[in-house]
Design goal:
By secondary structure, this protein is α+β, with helices and mostly antiparallel strands. It is built from 4 helices and 2 strands, in the order H-H-E-H-E-H. Helices cover 44% and strands 15% of the residues. A two-stranded parallel ribbon has the order 1-2. Helix 3 links the parallel strand 1 and strand 2. It starts with a helix and ends with a helix.
Length: 80
């Protein structure tokens, strides 16, 4: 029961500053699972190289365009 109560205090922003590898991030403004306010807070804490793609009209799922952009980013990263 105590562990279940503690999970309410976890926020990805508390872990984002520990990231050391490049990352590609994408989210939508209508996401009720991972709200944009929390996601932006986490993104802003990441000090590693990063890229952000926002698709305003989506919720907690991905469009094919997001997968395409993520793939392009990965190939670009390995070409460096």
């Amino acid at each position: 029961e105590q562990k279940a109560k503690t999970t309410g205090y976890y926020d990805v922003v508390n872990f984002a500053r520990n990231l050391k590898v490049p990352g590609f991030y994408s989210f939508g403004y209508n996401d009720m699972v991972c709200p944009p306010t929390s996601t932006f807070s986490a993104y802003n804490e990441i000090k590693a190289p990063k890229e952000l793609l926002i698709i305003p009209e989506i919720a907690h799922y991905t469009y094919p365009e997001q997968w395409e952009k993520a793939g392009q980013w990965i190939f670009w990263l390995f070409e460096k």
